[in-house]
Amino acid sequence: VQGTGGSSAVSKCSAAARGYIQDRFLRLLAGRRRRRAPLIHRGYYIRARAVDHCVQDFLLKTRSLPRTQILSLGAGFDSLYFRLKDMGLLHHTVVYEVDFPNVACQKATLIKRMKELSALVGNTGGEGLGSITFSGEDYKLLGVDLSELSELERTLEEAGLNNEIPTLFIAEVVLTYMENTRSDALIQWAAEHFPQACFLVYEQVHPEDPFGRVMQQHFSQLSCALRSLARYPDCEAQQRRFLGKGWTECTVMDMNEFFTCCTPEDEQQRVQTLEPFDEYEEWHLKCSHYFVLAASKGMDPSWTPLLPSVTAPRRAGPGGMAGSVPAAVCARLSGIPGLRRYGHHSVLIKPGVILTTGGFGEENGQHCRMRNFHLLRKCAGYWKAVCVTQNTPDKRWGERLYHTVSRLSDTLALVVGGRTSPSSAGLGMLWLKFPKTCHASEPGDVSVELVSLQPAAEAAASRWRHSTTEMTFKGEQYLFVYGGRSALEPVLGDWYFLHTPELSCTTIAVEGPVPESRHSHSACSWEGGVLIAGGLGAAEQPLGSVFLLSELEHGFQWQTIETHPPLVPRYSHTAHVHEGKLLLVGGVWFHASSVPGITVIDLKTGLCLDYVINVEHLEWPLMLHNHSSVFLPNEKELLIIGGGGNCFSFGTHLNPEPVVLSLSSILISH
Questions:
Q1: Which PANTHER family does this chain map to (predicted)?
Q2: In what order do the strands lie in the sheet with 429-433?
Q3: Residues whose CB is less than 8 angstroms from the CB of residue 366 and which lie 6 or more positions away in sequence, other chains included
């Protein structure tokens, strides 16, 4: 548990070095320096932002009072006191910090050694006595085990904590490491002994969904299990916990809601442009698995730091589920590491033959960008997989992620776009050519050839997280390239009509309301046109709109398909059309109470039904984002290949095996 504090300080320090948070004291307290990934920076930014937002609100609301105090529980190597003092916000406030005795001693030694720190505490800062490891005029550092409540109470009294003045308690990823009986006792003790008090909590939530299971496993491996999650698994349970332990007001938000509603738009934009970033799914999943809670009692005026400052529409979450879809491991495909990947693309190149390309995954026991292709072929009712080599020795493939692959014939497919890193330019287009006898027993080589593009079509290929869809116009075949993002534009809303097979860029008139820009959406061919659903829009907000691009006499027309109930906004899903029904598979949404399963939209009536995926027969968490899926209409089955991603600092999860979803019951009943 003590180790998590040091690791947290290093991550905050790295975020500060990249400009996410303004804090010149972290580098003095963190000890070692290490640069973290952009996803980690964002995660620690939102943590620091939430805590600072609530602390400064407390100081603002109580600035007219003669005295207040802050008690930081499990403070570790946090720099809160030094930041507040440096900002001139502690004129009448004393800060008390509590942590394990050896942590408090280490921090006290650091403060005494660093002139920049000791100067802020003032000359009265000196040697502490007993459990008081450092004592300044407005700063007290105490070495006490928080689970020993009587010892904590005695030491706080000795250090001068005053029960009669407004007090802010802070527990930043602390209570969850304690036995529930002890953390509950601490929460109740604070309410009973302090007539005017506020309590700020930041910690984990939602332990049982796929991301939550990976998160729990990580902390268990560190020998610091998250003990509160079983009893208090969601925000509502945490709110009931505080209201039942003597606190009269309590507001809770997960971090997606906090970032959207309590962070000014200009600040959101600043953070989103600090460094190249392309891990939206993991960022939003991390934010849905952490909450900030503000509880209070006896405060006048009341303490309500979590009131939205940004007017964001309250989105309805999924209603009741219409049923469930069984998931089963795909027989005989276990143990094939090349199918463990995300950000890849799978395409049915002929009946019973599926090609999977690109992405990031596992090869030879290593995590890497995937160069090899994999071919699945159905033989005698079972899928068989084989790795396929490219017969081009150069770097044409480019180890790309988030590209599209469109089948043009049994022997030809087109790769459009993709990226290597989020700062890379687009990777252009490639032909994939298969031998006529291509099958899993003797797949032969796949030749990769660069497409020589007209200048007008180059922009169509310089993107990723886009869609490429087959369509027809006046009986001619086209590919419709839409949306996505590029190294320069975080979200695109343009489109291109590429006439096949020569890929000439054709101008065709389009009428109707233009969909808002998006990436990570889904696109399907339907009745000669294209269905676009969901996606991540500007400001990194999921979208719930469905559009149909349909053919007119002289061009095309955008039409909105109204769904009822409204489609829950989502992105990073896959989609298929079957007999007038649009099937949306998985994805990421902002509603942490459940994860997206299968949504079926009747394209004639707009009826929208959600189905949960029954994973009881899977022995591992099924992450349905950054996956690929192939619909098999004869069997009424969906084959899910790959999926997963970097689960914040908890490790990378790759779905280990392909999964079959049986849709026969929902397609018949619907």
A1: TRNA WYBUTOSINE-SYNTHESIZING PROTEIN 4
A2: 404-409, 412-416, 429-433, 447-450
A3: none
Provide the pLDDT for residue 350: 87
**Residue 428 has what pLDDT?**
85
Q: Is the pLDDT of residue 314 over 60?
A: no
- What tens digit of pLDDT does each residue of 527-572 get? 999 999 999 999 999 999 999 999 998 999 999 999 999 999 999 9
> Would you report the helix, strand and coil content of the chain in percent, each value rounded to 5?
25, 35, 45
- How far apart CA 431 and CA 419 sit, in angstroms, is 17
Please tell me the distance from the alpha carbon of residue 302 to that of residue 22, in angstroms, as a whole number.
Answer: 29
The answer to whether residue 310 sits within a structural domain is: no
What domain range is 168 assigned to?
A: 50-249+285-297
Q: Give all strands (DSSP E) within 156-212, no chain letters.
A: 167-172, 197-204
pLDDT single digits (tens) 175-228 = 999 999 999 999 999 999 999 999 999 999 999 999 999 999 999 888 889 999
Structure letter (DSSP) for residue 152? H
Q: Do 351 and 204 lie in a common domain?
A: no
H-helix or E-strand containing 127? Answer: strand 126-127
**CB contact at 8 A, 261 and 309:** yes
- Predicted TM-score (pTM) of the model is 0.94
Q: Is the dihedral of CA 172, 198, 26, 262 positive or negative?
A: positive
Whether 365 shows a pLDDT value over 60: the answer reads: yes
Q: Please check whether residues 503 and 602 belong to one and the same domain.
A: yes
Residues 289 and 345 in one domain: no
The whole-angstrom distance between residue 168's C-alpha and the CA centroid of its chain comes to: 30
Determine the Cα–Cα distance for residues 368 and 389; give it in Å rounded to an integer.
17
